[in-house]
Amino acid sequence: MSQTTDGMSFADAEVAYQIEGDASPTDMSGFAASVEISGFETQIGEAYTAEGNTAILTAGKIAPGDVTVKAIYTENDADPTKKLFDAKAAKKKVKFIWYPRGNAATHYKWETDFGFLTTVNAGGGEASSPDALLAEFALKTAQISQTTVSA
Questions:
Q1: Beta-ladder partners of 109
Q2: Which of 118, 113, 109, 38 has the alpha carbon at shortest distance from 84?
Q3: Helix (H, G, I), strand (E, B) or coil at 113
Q4: How many of the other CB atoms lie within 10 Å of CB of 120?
Q5: Rounded distance between C-alpha atoms, residue 88 and residue 17, angstroms
Q6: Is pTM beyond 0.70 here?
Q7: Mean pLDDT of 6-26
Q8: Strands (E) located in the chain
Q9: Residue 5: is its pLDDT beyond 90?
Q10: Residues 49-91 pLDDT 10s
Q11: CB-neighbour burial class of residue 133 (10 A; exposed 0-12, middle 13-18, buried 19+)
């Protein structure tokens, strides 16, 4: 198999959030800096027999996971930090949606189920750093789905 030459960056991505009860997602692409995914491992069972040296493996359920969005922290009206902080405090369900290549026909759309924010960290920083402050929003969710944007 030959090596691909079709890599991409996250530079053209679109990222949105939706708080349960909102009519539609809110675009946060102008603030979002990264989307990180962890968890969602398939649970694997193992058993051994008296004869043989290797395990018998079986696949089980898929564990929940975390999707963490980091975004520029600004305290302006469009900054998602306050809205997501309030959603966490009220224990409202939230979901994240992102399009790594942008929201255009044939591009992939990734979307979490509604879940709960476990972390909304914002406003902290380091005085000696010239970097922009980042807010961090960690969502615990049951699954992520992938679809293709239709034409």
A1: 147
A2: 118
A3: coil
A4: 21
A5: 13
A6: yes
A7: 94
A8: 14-19, 26-27, 32-39, 42-47, 56-62, 65-72, 94-99, 108-112, 116-121, 134-141, 144-148
A9: no
A10: 999 999 999 999 999 999 999 999 999 888 999 999 999 999 9
A11: middle
